[in-house]
Amino acid sequence: xTVAPPAASTAHAQELVGTLRRxxxxxxxxxxxxxxxxxxxxGAIVARTVTGLRGTFRMRVTGDRLxxxxxxxxxxxxxxxxxxxSAGESRDLSRTLPEAPADVAAPLACP
Length: 111
Description:
Layout: E1 14-22, E2 34-39, E3 45-50, E4 56-61, E5 66-72, E6 75-83, E7 90-92, E8 95-97
Parallel strand pairs: 1-7, 1-8
Antiparallel strand pairs: 1-4, 2-3, 2-5, 5-6
């Protein structure tokens, strides 16, 4: 996975905003949910951020076609959106995240 260089100009930057909540009890998540925006064409990470104490986030992104994922330790990744934003566009990705455990493969046996 490669990290893309920042956009040359932020005058008309696109941004993703929102609040992530727990599936159970519909309460805002605590700090620490990692959000990653990757270009679909090559998988390069173009932006990342972490939710605040109330589950809120704001992330500037490029105008490329992107997939945005929420990542939490011990839980399955969640695709929030696959999108391509226009210059200056802001999109709300507020969601309630499922509490699905990560699918961890069985450990390999050592010879």
